[in-house]
Design a protein that fits this description.
Aminopeptidase; single chain; 7-stranded mixed sheet; alpha+beta; 24% strand; 11-stranded mixed sheet; 2 domains
Amino acid sequence: MWPTATLLVLVRTSTEIELARRFRNAQLGSASAAHTARLPREVLSLKRARRRLSDVYHCGSQSSSIARGVEERTWGPNNVANPLAHNDELGVAVIDNRGEAEAIREEWDELAVAAGRPYCSPAWMLPWWTWMRTGNAQLRTIVFHDRVGVVAIAPFFAQIGKLGLTEYRLLGAGTSHRIGVLCRPGHEVAVAAPLGDALRRLDPRPSSIVWEGIDSRDKWPERTTKALAGRAGVKLRRDGEMGAPTLHLEGASFEEWLTSKSRNFRHDLLKKRRRFEAEGGSIRRTRSETELEADLAAFARLHRARWAARGGSGFFDDRIVAMLRDVGSELLDADRFRLYMVELKGIPIAASVCVAAGDAVAWWATGMDDAHGRLSPTLLGFLRAVEESCERGEGLIDLGGGAAGYKQRFANRNEPIIGMTQFPRGRRYPLTRAQLFPKHVRYHLRSMARRLPPECQQQLKRILRRR
């Protein structure tokens, strides 16, 4: 008998071939309709032109279905017979190169700071675009503006694959959490329909719009779906959810926060800190570009060494180091890039990277020499980060996705991260779903794997790395 996995691959492959054949035939047989189905590209520079948005659509019917634990909702065609006018003062531009993105860097960063979203700042997203994009990727960041300045930014790019598959993804996808649309407070409703309309009109036309690593309270996928539906409708799929611990300081001093923890927690951590200092340990933060290069090299070495025995780190390579170098160069002087070096007698034994925006700090990644695990250097590094955040009056430390034990010890809330995908309905829809089927199966399997005990997860990762 064929193994189940082999049968799935054979079925999927034959389905893709058949759907591809039908799709090509449909294209050849409907040439007269093709030019009306494909809208012209409208790429406007903030410096060159302003385009008035002019359609408000009425939402069609809505249905929902649950299949294999994944939620999907279908939005019917919009009624476009009686379009109304949007706010005449709202214009849109689609940025397709980094030079134009740099022109709005200051206003972009102001929105990220106001929202408390460190990974949405241009200082993080643009280096990510420079170093981390793969394959055929094209920048397509949508910017809304009024007479005052930038109102909203949707930092997308197009990932183009086989047979014309075009996935629109968020800058920072795969390495960052709580990314997404930035909007001036109070303008969300005014921007929602124009954003959905702009996504629908992008060139190349979207096969799917993927919202990876967004906050579970983020409403932009739902807000934009009505206008994105156009005349054919949209399928909205929830791809999965990951727990993400957070620490809300709420203006507390370090002493007040420490007092709020259990007696055992305080006693254990303070005892570890005294022992660490008695053995010649110290914690410092990278302060200059001169230190940055050496500290990043040490951080990379510690991170890779820590994960080598746990199946390896799938994303930490030289491109990540180059990206962090650019981020650090941009944010170090503003005290928003924080690389904590935990050293024993001057030798790094642990390191952690944090990025800040507004009153929020995002804890990105850590590395540790397991030979010194008895000193709990990662915990002590985080304790120092909490102490400094309290001194600055920062309100939130976001520990990112995953429920590692040390995160749970410090966190006081769980604010999950989710993924969602929008599929515009049309002639290409069946082929798109067939092409993305393997990825969505991986999403499902990954979600199941996260429910396993940590030791089982590490064993599974080691097995997969050998293949």
